[in-house]
Specification:
alpha+beta; ten-stranded mixed beta sheet; L-glutamate N-acetyltransferase activity; Arginine biosynthesis bifunctional protein ArgJ; amino-acid biosynthesis; five-stranded mixed beta sheet; Ubiquitin-like (UB roll); ArgJ_beta_C
Amino acid sequence: MFNLISLKNGLENIEGFKFGGVSAGFKPNGDNDLGFIRSDEPVDVSAVFTSNKFKAAPIRHFLRYEPNFKTNFILLNSKNANAMTGEAGINDIDEIFAQIGKNVNLTNPIMSSTGVIGYRLNKEKIIAGTSKFDLNSRDSDATVRAIMTTDSFKKELAFRVELEDGSSFNIACICKGAGMINPAFATMLCFVLTDANIPKSDMDELLAGCVKHSFNAVSVDGDTSTNDTLMLLTSRKSGTYNKEAFKFALEQITLNMALNLVKDGEGSTKVVAFEVNGALNDLEAEVGAKALSNSLLVKTAIFGEDPNWGRIASTIGASGIECCDKSLVIYYDDVLVFDKDHPELDEQREAKAHAVMQKDSYKISCSLGIGDGKFTAYGCDLGHTYVKINADYRS
């Protein structure tokens, strides 16, 4: 058994790391646009990146390191994605680190960028900005604000994981993202820090596993960025680790961040969970659920609060998965809107379904009645909304 306790102040709960952010003059309002995460000593890092074929220069730079390398420095910038800049974009990163390295001891430094595609980095401005860093800072707020672009609110979260024997470890993350969100890996930068004494092999396994039901299960506008990045780093300062507990905590923290991406979707007003169950297998359920979360037809129905179940059924049928109208059952939360015995919405059920669709968040459940496959995807109507996310979790 283990408990998850919500903590304030994000990354500041993780010992062994320093972090902060400054304004280098890229944002016109003087907000932070350059940040860093630094470790006291080189640490293990695991990462998952965009599925976009045109991976940005920072990702290509990362992938040139030997497998299982350690790092002690991540440089973060907004306003410029350094994507579609060719070999010159990678060389620019090396030049920036060469200059920073004159004053800071760097081991396999990493850069992560977000912003406009197709422009070279302003190296001089970035290097000048890094001279403002307080490398002993532990300001989570300043760090997360340095990577915000179209985000309407900052995204940070932290848990303390209390184990049954009285020991504990902490896990925290910061994240950015609001547009170009698609279940081919959501457009965002997300950095997870922990003091858990987790083996590198478990880091790789659990990080890769957690994205399926979090960042790869959300959709806002169906586009996939060139810069999507999820990283996990550990200082191992707590000396404590439990694989089951860490897996659960990582899944919760990434799911919360993924839902915040949908919540902050550019122009959205509602967040909807699309649950497909009773599918032939889990893969078919995933295909069906993601078809619903991506469908522009469904998004317009959500925005218009139109309980017409025909758009849901049509999208399921068009997804190519095995389904049958005789076994299909559709619910909006706990309101039955369709089964073979109720093909038409009567006035009472239509009113109840419409009331569900007026809420900021709800679930559309589609039971196919064919097998045991199930999957839940998350989407929106391209409007701003509020998603209630539990602060504390218990196993």
